[in-house]
From TrEMBL:
It comes from the Archaea. InterPro entries: 4Fe4S_Fe-S-bd, 4Fe4S_Fe_S_CS, AKR2_Oxidoreductase, NAD(P)_OxRdtase_dom_sf, NADP_OxRdtase_dom. Residues 332-360 form the 4Fe-4S ferredoxin-type domain. GO terms for molecular function: oxidoreductase activity. This is Aldo/keto reductase family protein.
Amino acid sequence: MKKLGFGAMRLPENGRFSKGIDLDLTCEMIDYFIEKGYNYFDTAYPYHSGKSEETLKKCLVERYSREDFILIDKLPTFFLKKEEDMEKYFNIQQERCGVEYFDYYLIHDIAKRNLNAIRKFNPYEYVKKLKKEGKVKHIGFSFHDDAEFLEEMLNEMPEIEVVMLQINYLDWESSAVQSRKCYEICRKYNKEIMVMEPLKGGTLVNVPDKAKDILKTSKPEMSVPSWALRFVAGLKDVSIVFSGMHSIEDVKENIETMDNFEPLDEKEHKILQDVAGIIKGVNIIPCTYCNYCAENCEDNIPISKFFELYNADLRENHFKFSKYLDEYNEYASIAAYASDCTFCGNCVDSCPQQLDIPEYMGDVADYFE
């Protein structure tokens, strides 16, 4: 099995402000991906406001034999209001994707902020029932919390087969994400490990110039993203690494890395530690641009996009004459400004990175406005 998976959370869209997915380009990306011998695809109910699952139906399921691909979907614990909702969402997902079964079905976003729903509705028993009925082949959960809570959940859900973890070299020793500690807990319990956010939403693609110079000087033939992919793919017991691909160039570059895969050596690990230190020193907002926050924003603020523009400006050192100010104003004029935030807190409750988003919104407003 090849270790690269196609993440369908950041599919290409039609136009700058459009929420519609570019189907022709997505089909081209999927065709190239499968042609090169890769077949794992990951989606979820909220990705692209539900359009991700529908797009995979059109570009993948309706164009390839079912045995040609492995499809992963997730039960949205954060949307559950009553027990019957689990079956409701699963049926919707089956219809959206156009499949009779999912190869993997994960409980989405196991975290303390979703603990009430986990305790009240017991999605663990529900996914076990789906497996028994043959509607899913393997069960697991995606995880966004600390290692201690992960161990607690694995003890409560012993039949879970796979855990999807956020792992990358920037979060490896993070006190919030705890990539290394969570990885070690999964190995302790002999669970299959899938990796999400290996590039941290593009943060490890668009690194500061100083960090980029170090990587390019060390290995000129390697792209900046390939360092991050090699870091996670080289970890023991990692079965698949999902990269959210936005263009055909992303697909080709990631495949080139994995087709010619070499694990990092000790010297290269040390280089990435230095690079991580540089990135952290720039004071960028540690956002992965998943956009869960914006989906729940009462003020209609494009939070992830504003964070992306803010981070890009900081990385490129345009502190006095902002390179991205015009783009910020374009988005704000269509939706809302960062200063329109009313501090309702909905965004905080939905953030997998546990960010104090209203506080960061103040930073963005001060910076751009």
